[in-house]
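Appendix C reproduces, verbatim, an entry submitted by the partner laboratory led by Prof. M.T., so that reviewers can inspect both the input and the predicted structure.
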Amino acid sequence: MENEALKPNVGGARKIARKLLKDAKVLEIPVSLQKVLDYVKTQQNLDVVKYNFGEKVSGMLVTLGDSSTIGFNPDHAWVRRRFTIAHELGHLYMGHTCGGHDNDNKETEANQFAAELLVPLAFIKRDFASQTNLDILAQKYVVSKEALCIHLMQCKLI
């Protein structure tokens, strides 16, 4: 029982991402991150801004009171920026705050949220059944091949 509390809530993260897609009325691939963000902004005070963090930092979520800002590194590749913004949305929707001993779990949950948001299981199951070329699928979903492969493995499709 105690070990369960130490594990990341992967299923919960994916479920929250699916609900966000449904609420934002995203019905096709590639997921329009702009459409998702536009919806989120109707629900809460959110800004998304470019910020040069340097080479090693992709992005960050800062929340003060009821206002949140996602900063993303404009120098990174487009697919990386999409994943970063989705990842930071995951932190926001999962209610993550800084610090604590479960930081690795928070990062895992935010990654699972981002992967499900950008590569929804319902769509990738269908697409992967008819197209196994990972380069083509990564282009279709506008994600990196690495992110796609990780998601396919975690969803037990490969």
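The two ends are 30 Å apart (CA to CA). Additional entries are available on request from the coordinating office.
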